[in-house]
Automatic annotation (TrEMBL):
<dbReference type="InterPro" id="IPR000757">
    <property type="entry name" value="Beta-glucanase-like"/>
</dbReference>
<dbReference type="InterPro" id="IPR013320">
    <property type="entry name" value="ConA-like_dom_sf"/>
</dbReference>
<keyword id="KW-0326">Glycosidase</keyword>
<dbReference type="Pfam" id="PF01755">
    <property type="entry name" value="Glyco_transf_25"/>
</dbReference>
<keyword id="KW-0378">Hydrolase</keyword>
<dbReference type="InterPro" id="IPR002654">
    <property type="entry name" value="Glyco_trans_25"/>
</dbReference>
<protein>
    <recommendedName>
        <fullName>Beta-glucanase</fullName>
    </recommendedName>
</protein>
<dbReference type="Pfam" id="PF00722">
    <property type="entry name" value="Glyco_hydro_16"/>
</dbReference>
<dbReference type="InterPro" id="IPR008263">
    <property type="entry name" value="GH16_AS"/>
</dbReference>
<dbReference type="InterPro" id="IPR044791">
    <property type="entry name" value="Beta-glucanase/XTH"/>
</dbReference>
<comment type="similarity">
    <text>Belongs to the glycosyl hydrolase 16 family.</text>
</comment>
<feature type="domain" description="GH16">
    <location>
        <begin position="418"/>
        <end position="658"/>
    </location>
</feature>
Length: 658
């Protein structure tokens, strides 16, 4: 039984499941069960041994196991490499270690289980029949690998029956429950290094292993124990156009204990604490010299309706105010990052010491807050100190702005707060050397170190990006949209992206968007893991308006928080038709605010928590033309208007390093 050390609850649950059955000698199955401590992705600090596991595979490997009518195994698929997630690496290493145990053990066969399984009705009877059918005349098992839990995705599926099925070709998913003989385990170890998710790699060994599936699934994974693993193939299939439906991904709503207040000395991990609280779903205000007066007053009076439910490293929270807040908020919790920083007498049950000597901060914090242990690494961020709040100056030439429907998440403040204008942080006056990347009409866009022409797509895009649709001419670039059938889409579109991710700077382009309804011209900054994004978009059904948007998820690089379907969109009335002539559109992104500019003039601005935090991870620059799946959003496409194009005259990216 493969089980994580930090999940004793799963170990207890699966033991109860096994105790429902007895072996032929009358012993409960738990007597025969040995627990294998699973490799934990959260604590992996080094790369896997390349002689054991190569943490990548190709799209061709995926299609070998699960063919797709839209894709074929060709040189492109063989060259399309997919990096495994940390969770997939940990699962693979756990199974490989278990095979070693089988080889060195005394038994000729072993049933290998993951810790989220349940036996189906008739399990014992059907297992006995399957076992009998797979014995040789001497009574020994006549197989190497027998799947008891599986999902059949082969092109020649068989109807469920009583007899086991000999699997000679790939097409079997899951490694939650399988029987492995000692000889089979040795064959697998001899075939190392494995590559890719372990259930995929097992399929590629069927030619050398005598593999069977039970006539029907005898063991299933629990539906009430959702997986927290992330799967590397899903974003890859989205990019190549196989996944055509995008489901709105929203954070689960659960009641969090609090309010939570984080205190400590400078450079004691307060910024990391604030990020950690945000990652588990708190709306966290942090690292400020003072708190907005209304928010502080409500907290001191213990009133509901506050904007935030966590406060870390706030100058307004001194020892005197903390004692009053503790009295007014009987459920308030206090996290101290410095051992000697104890403001007054607080009940021990409401205080957590989380100084730098605590080895597993997630364990201490999650137990204290009464939440599940998070599936990502605890953040290690440099303390940014208490930032000064400044007065907000009105824009010289603001344009009329209308908010559209926002997503709902812990990192978006609700728009019912009519007078809330966010928090203006004083600008950092430190200067650094400026770095500019410039392209202008008449120059080729062939700098492979700077730019890439996209050849992928995403679920809500009804077109496939094609490098052939980006063409240079004497007056600039054309991003074209055509009716052109491909295996995954009926249209092709165009996109330019930077090969470098940038942290803050100015991102501008002079262009004229397409005015064909159903199409979107976008200039935006983007990343996944965590998802953060800053947008300028022109909807072809009304190019007199500019749509600006921000998506925010917290976390360091690699954090699999990618919530957001609509984001926080706002329409800006330009006062002219953008499709009639060229204009320069710019995103000016700083740590303390985002400004959207048209022809050099700031027309709209967002500050901290207006309504989201400012994206704080490096982002990729993009300029594209695409076909939206949402007719409500961009209108119906008139195919007789194709081909069409967005014309680009210049691109300028300016960043600075301190």
């Amino acid at each position: 039984m493969i089980n994580l050390d930090r999940r004793p609850d799963r170990w207890r649950r699966v033991r109860r499941e096994l105790d429902r059955f007895r072996c032929r000698h009358g012993d409960r199955l738990t007597v025969l069960t040995r627990r294998i401590s699973a490799v934990d992705a959260r604590y992996m600090t080094s790369a896997s041994d390349p002689a054991v596991l190569r943490p990548a595979y190709t799209l061709a490997d995926q299609l070998t196991v699960e063919p797709n009518p839209l894709l074929k195994i060709d040189d492109t698929a063989r060259a399309h490499e997919i990096a495994m997630t940390r969770e997939e690496i940990a699962v693979a290493l756990s199974h490989i270690e278990t095979w070693r145990r089988v080889v060195t053990g005394d038994d000729t066969t072993a049933l290998i289980l993951e810790d989220d399984v349940v036996m189906t009705s008739g399990f014992a009877r059907r297992l006995k029949a399957t076992w009998t059918a797979l014995q040789d005349p001497s009574g020994s098992p006549d197989f190497d690998l027998l799947y008891l839990a599986y999902k059949d995705v082969s092109t020649e599926t068989t109807r469920p029956g009583a007899d086991p099925v000999h699997r000679r070709e790939p097409g079997v998913w899951e490694a939650a429950a399988y029987v492995l003989t000692k000889a089979g385990a040795q064959k697998l170890l001899d075939r190392l290094p494995a590559f890719g998710p372990i259930d995929l790699w097992l399929n590629l060994q069927f030619t050398t292993l005598k593999t069977f599936t039970a006539g029907r699934r005898l063991i299933e994974q629990r539906i009430d124990e959702p997986s927290i693993n992330s799967y590397s193939v899903l974003p890859a299939l989205s990019r190549v156009g196989v996944i055509t439906k995008e489901k709105a991904l929203l954070p689960s709503s659960h009641r969090l204990r609090g309010p939570v207040i984080g205190l400590g000395a400078a450079h004691s991990g307060l910024t990391s604490l604030a990020r950690a609280l945000s990652m588990v779903g708190y709306t966290c205000l942090s690292d400020l010299d003072r708190m907005p007066a209304d928010e502080l007053g409500m907290l001191q009076r213990g009133e509901r309706g506050r904007l935030f439910n966590a406060y870390v490293n706030i100058g307004s929270l001194n020892d005197k105010s903390i004692r009053g807040i503790a009295a007014a908020n009987p459920h308030a919790l206090f996290v101290l990052t410095t051992l000697d920083h104890v403001p007054g007498k607080l009940p021990a049950s409401r205080v957590l010491h989380l100084d730098r000597t605590v080895a597993d901060k997630w364990n201490s914090l999650s137990e204290f807050l009464g939440i599940d242990y998070p599936p990502f690494l605890y953040p290690e961020a440099e303390d940014i100190g208490k930032r000064s709040i400044a007065s907000r100056l009105p824009l010289d030439k603001p344009l009329p702005a209308t908010d559209l429907k926002f997503d709902t998440s812990p990192w978006i403040l609700p728009r019912r707060l009519l007078n809330w204008q966010g928090i203006q942080i004083q600008s950092d006056q430190s200067s650094g050397s400026a770095t500019s990347i410039k392209w202008s009409a008449g120059k080729p866009l062939d700098d492979d170190e700077t730019w890439k022409l996209r050849d992928d797509t995403f679920p809500s895009n009804l077109a496939l990006f094609s490098p052939r649709n980006v063409t240079a001419h004497i007056d600039g670039l054309a991003l074209a949209m055509r009716r052109e059938s491909t295996p995954v889409r009926e249209f092709t579109a165009a996109a330019i992206a930077s090969r470098t991710n940038y942290l803050y700077g100015s991102f501008a382009a002079e262009f004229r968007p397409s005015s064909v309804p159903g199409l979107i011209t976008g200039l935006f900054l983007h990343r996944n893991g965590p998802r953060q994004e800053i947008d300028i978009e022109f909807l072809g059904n009304d190019t007199t308006k500019m749509l600006v948007n921000v998506f925010y998820n917290p976390g360091h690089d690699g954090t699999k928080l990618e919530y957001g379907y609509r984001g926080t969109p706002t329409e800006i009335a330009l006062g002219f038709d953008a499709a009639a002539d060229f204009h320069t559109y710019e995103i000016d992104w700083r740590p303390n605010r985002i400004a959207w500019k048209v022809d050099g003039e700031t027309v709209y601005e967002r500050t901290l928590w207006n309504p989201t935090p400012i994206p704080d991870q490096p982002l990729e620059f993009n300029l594209n033309l695409w076909h939206s799946r949402s007719t409500e959003f961009a209108g119906h496409l008139d195919t007789y208007s194709l081909p069409t194009r967005t014309e680009v005259r210049s691109i300028v990216i300016t960043t600075s390093s301190s």
